[in-house]
Structure formats: C-alpha cells, structure tokens
UniProtKB/TrEMBL annotation:
It comes from the Eukaryota. It comes from Phalacrocorax carbo (Great cormorant). One of its GO terms (molecular function) is kinase activity. SMART domains: Mob1_phocein (SM01388). This is MOB kinase activator 3C. Zn(2+) binds at residues 70, 75, 152, 157. Keywords: Kinase, Metal-binding, Transferase, Zinc. The lineage of its organism: Eukaryota, Metazoa, Chordata, Craniata, Vertebrata. The keyword Kinase applies. The keyword Kinase applies. Gene3D superfamilies: MOB kinase activator (1.20.140.30). It holds the Pfam family Mob1_phocein.
Length: 195
C-alpha cells in the first residue's frame, strides 16, 4: 500500500540529463561527498529537485521491501527508538501534530510527497518555468520526513534488512542522502540526532 511507482524524468529534458549525470557518478565508485556537489553551471534548484525525486523513489522502495515487518501491531507509533516520536501534520486533514502508527505515517508520507512532486507549481518540469520561492523550504520538509523513514528502518527494522541481504544497499542510499543534505544544509542538525 505504501509502494509507489517510480517518478521518472522525461528523456530530453535538462532534469533527465542531470539525473543521468547523478546516476553515472554513483555507479562510477566515486566518493559520495564529491558526487553530491553541484555540477558547474547547473541550477541548484534543478539539482535539488532531481535528488528529492530520486531519494523519494529509493526510500519508498526500501520501505516497500520491508513493510510487511512494519505493522500496526509491531509499530503502533511512528518512532525512532524510545526517545523520538514522529507525529503527522499536513495542513489539510491533520492540522495539529497527530500520533499515528508507523504504517499509517508512511502511507500518509508517501501520498503527500507524491502529490508535491507531481505538482507542476512546486516541481515544474517545463523549460523556462521557474521554481516557486518556497521550493527549497518544501524540499527541506520532504527530506526531513524522508530522513525519519531511515531512522525508523534503522532502529526498528534493520534486522529485517540484514535478513534480506539489503544492508549494503540501504547503507549506501543513506550515505548518499546524508552527504547530500549536509552539502546543501537541507535538514536541521537536530533532526539528525537519532542516527
């Protein structure tokens, strides 16, 4: 229920070319700290947009592969251990931070991100259409919430990841994500404390 089909970039667009550049860099075995740096002459908003969509796809896949272990019974509260509880708020149905189970939170999160990245007013795909002024703020909120998926998976379900033999993939994805958010200061450092 929380798995979403991959969001793709249209071939021939600037974002598709940036996506190919980012993927080629990752596959080349380069240092991930260097891979996340903005390529010369590229727009920072385009670079962030490409990565936000890519991280959404990857993290959605990670959660989807182990979601059968994250149930209402095993995870009645969306948390990152005993010290961190994440509540849902979305300015429409949940106007106040609301306690949800981890599966409910994940479903709300994936729906919410999918709605944002498919919104042309926030993530424009046509050449010459500018990003909105609040674009990086929206991306910060998306990335902060995606980070919480890592927190939950690492603290509550890493044994399942190991049993599936997926820990190398999850660790690489997390490392890429971490270097990217640090490179552009996209998440408040306090949010990073659980990991």
């Amino acid at each position: 229920k929380t798995f979403r089909p991959r969001k793709k970039f249209e071939p021939g667009t600037q974002r598709f070319e940036l996506y190919k550049k980012a993927q080629a860099s990752l596959k080349s075995g380069l240092d991930l700290k260097a891979v996340v740096q903005l390529p010369p002459g590229e727009s920072i908003n385009d670079w962030i947009a490409v990565h936000v969509v890519d991280f959404f796809n990857r993290i959605n896949l990670i959660y989807g592969t182990m979601s059968e272990y994250c149930t209402e019974k095993s995870c009645p509260i969306m948390s990152g251990g005993l010290r961190y509880e994440y509540r849902w708020q979305d300015d429409s149905k949940y106007k106040k931070p609301t306690k949800l189970s981890a599966p409910q939170y994940m479903c709300m999160l994936m729906d919410w991100i999918e709605m944002l990245i498919n919104n042309e007013d926030i993530f424009p795909t046509r050449i010459g259409v500018p990003f909105p002024k609040q674009f990086q703020q929206v991306c910060t909120k998306i990335l902060t919430r995606l980070f919480r998926v890592f927190v939950h998976v690492y603290i509550h379900h890493f044994d399942s990841i190991i049993n599936m033999g997926a820990e190398a993939h999850v660790n690489t994805c997390y490392k890429h994500f971490y270097y990217f958010i640090r490179e552009f200061s996209l998440i408040d450092h306090r949010e990073l404390e659980p990991l």
